[in-house]
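README, section 4: Worked example with a bound small molecule

Sections 1 through 3 covered apo chains. Here we extend the same pipeline to holo records, where the ligand is supplied as SMILES alongside the sequence. The molecule in this example is adenosine-5'-triphosphate. Nothing else about the input changes; the structure line simply encodes the ligand pose together with the chain.
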Amino acid sequence: MNRLSWFNTVSLTLGFAFLYIPMLILVIYSFNASKLVTVWAGFSTRWYGELLHNEAFLDAAWVTLKVAVFSSSIATVLGTMAAYVLVRGNRFLGRTLFSGMIYAPLVMPEVITGLSLLLLFIGIGLDRGVLTIVLAHTTFSMCYVSVVVSSRLVTFDRSLEEAALDLGCSPAQAFRLVTLPIIAPAVISGWLLAFTLSLDDLVIASFTAGPSSTTLPIKIFSAVRLGVSPEINALSTVMIAIVAVGVIAASLVSKRSLVRQQKDEQEAARAQ
Amino acid sequence: MIRFQNVTKRFGTFTAIDNLSLDIFEREFFALLGPSGCGKTTMMRMLGGFESPTEGRIELSGKDIVGVPPNKRAVNMMFQSYALFPHLSVWDNIAFGLRRDGRPKADVEARVAEMLKLTRLEKFARRKPHQISGGQRQRVALARSLAKAPKLLLLDEPLGALDKKLRQDTQFELMDIQEKTGTTFVIVTHDQEEAMTVASRVAVMDEGKLIQVATPDRIYESPENVYVADFIGDVNIIEGRATPEAGGEDDTYRIDWAEGETPLQATSATRFDPGQTCYLAIRPEKVTISAERPEGALNAVQGKVLDIAYLGNISTYHVELTSGTVIKAQTANTRRISRRSFTWEDPVWLSWTVTGGVLLAG
Ligand SMILES: Nc1ncnc2c1ncn2[C@@H]1O[C@H](COP(=O)(O)OP(=O)(O)OP(=O)(O)O)[C@@H](O)[C@H]1O
Ligand SMILES: [Mg+2]
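The generated complex, written as structure tokens:
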């Protein structure tokens, strides 16, 4: 392996310090024994214990989890279907337009997405609560899923589906028995991505959440306005851990499937 | 059994299959042969149901099958790329089609076992496609397409991935399977030797058209035109002008082919007008090479050895005639190489009989 030059070492260190020092401080202070956030008074897990007895936080955590699970699952189904049609479907009028449009919410400012959803929910008279957050999260995470899944579908060998049809599958069976198992890793990492996106969303959730259904990020945000407490630090650390696990799992799943796909392709190339 | 009726297939403005009509019979081993891009795969895909013809109709057992989706056809295809399902084991790959028919479990198991035995894959049943060799994969693909006992089996360049030895073994295996099962086989290949070996009839295609459809020996011995003669095997083509021989029988022609050379003689079933341009096609193995002018030979030309291609069992001599034309002659190497009679630059005579060559109009 090449050794890093002096310059590279410094830039790498600076870059990562910039990224991770704030989080690191937060994690460290979550283990502070003192009630004062800025004064270190020895190591303690006291705040984690208190967290477990804080009803408001636990409620918010439960809401967040429910929203994340439901919205990411719905988004995965819808996103996969959209990706399949856009990559596989026969050319239909405006297909290019549709493929472009599915990516638009990715670059749309969240405030606008949140506001438009809010207007919609008010317009159709839907009371804000868990349901509205789920719907809102589904809308924006669906595009991420469809991006992940369609990039896998593009490299998917069409003749596998044809072989399935040839052997007597209906198109739906071919999808279920052949396409889906093969693209499963992409679908799973799409789900994990949607899940973590939903977990840490603040902006869209605050537009669409009702008084009885606050999510953790909203709770933290409003708590911090009254002052940072060590308890918040502990809660944030837990969230960092969950998100980190989610992201790492997603990247591992897609990495593994990539490696396997490459291996398969090499085998196939060798067979030619 | 299969009937193509004036089938045309266009991709945009490009015509891949051009007004083609063809009958393929029950229990036939039919080979489609032609250069790359002539439309062989397109023909197969139309039979499999993955493309529909732009014009014309395709019948299978008397029924028009245009518009019938692939899963409703009693046709199975072995894909050029095998298209094995990577997430399923060899066993499950073979069972895939049987399960779709909703057959009882015991039936499926018996049939898969039979297929594994036929393709000698018993040992690999539990492996995944990426854990077996290319040749084994090819046999899995074959077993999978055979498992449903289709009325018609389509093989798109099934043996392209194999080395020569395995390829020959598999060719015989295929013929064996075809005899045993009575399935109609249509095979695509651009290896003419393979087509000749396995097929009962061969269709030579070019640019979406059929050039000739006949049994392998007829394709080889009496090609209908220069394209077929040239495409199948090695051949010498001599261009000249035909004149019906005055004294001889009425299907003998005299061919004037070069200034100052003795005219050649050949028989032909097709008629040529006096002075019509013609092409005499002679296979190298029908040309005899000798040191002296052979007694009484009607077609004999003189030249010198330009090149010798030693192929083990046979040698091909490239002989340059005085007119500059190069003619290939083949002899079997019945003697050891040290006793070979001719070497480079040797003056030799080439001769062939009146019926040795085929006279073609174009
Ligand atoms: N989907 C398509 N769209 C446009 N052109 C096509 C399509 N499929 C095939 N063609 C064209 O039709 C012609 C015939 O293709 P086909 O695949 O049948 O060739 P082939 O005889 O199987 O060749 P090879 O021996 O290389 O496999 C080619 O010129 C090809 O470019
Ligand atoms: Mg082809």
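What to look for in the output: Chain B touches chain A through 31 residues (CB under 8 Å). Chain B has a mean pLDDT of 88.

Section 5 describes how to batch many such records.
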